[in-house]
């Protein structure tokens, strides 16, 4: 006789679904991701995933919003924790790279930003991107040029993770990683066992 599963509180179950969804959406993108794969990874039924969120679209939006919230929280903490001797940009870069510990999060963010054409997801993607830009401009004190360069590097970081270039044994991949991550290259190696 099997032991009955312990029922998780709703908040824990929601977080479990969103963490699994970030991994699956990060791996397959919005279109190809399947709610049954998310349910399996979360260790619950597909019916419970749908009942919790209503649709795959709503689940993707909640997952993307969770990732953007994590980026914002990481950036707020990096800015607040910087003293006058530290470069805020370096702290923000390290905070962004550490978000890769949440499997699929940065690639889910990349998928979100490619859905600007989607009638429902597009406005959320634009608002989310501008939320991050606002933190860089208003809290970190970056100029518009510095903020756009930082965002471009962030998109490159997400692309590298999406392509899994950090796991490639190729001299140009290693060069690209070093040029992109600079002082955070060791952190990427630690995160991915390189």
From TrEMBL:
Gene3D superfamilies: Tetracycline Repressor, domain 2 (1.10.357.10). Pfam families: TetR_N. One of its GO terms (molecular function) is DNA-binding transcription factor activity. The keyword Acyltransferase does not apply. Residues 11-71 form the HTH tetR-type domain. InterPro entries: Homeodomain-like_sf, HTH-type_TetR-like_transc_reg, HTH_TetR. Keywords: DNA-binding, Transcription, Transcription regulation. It comes from the Bacteria. SUPFAM superfamilies: Homeodomain-like (SSF46689). The keyword Chaperone does not apply. Residues 34-53 bind DNA. This is Rut operon repressor. It comes from Actinomyces howellii. The gene is rutR.
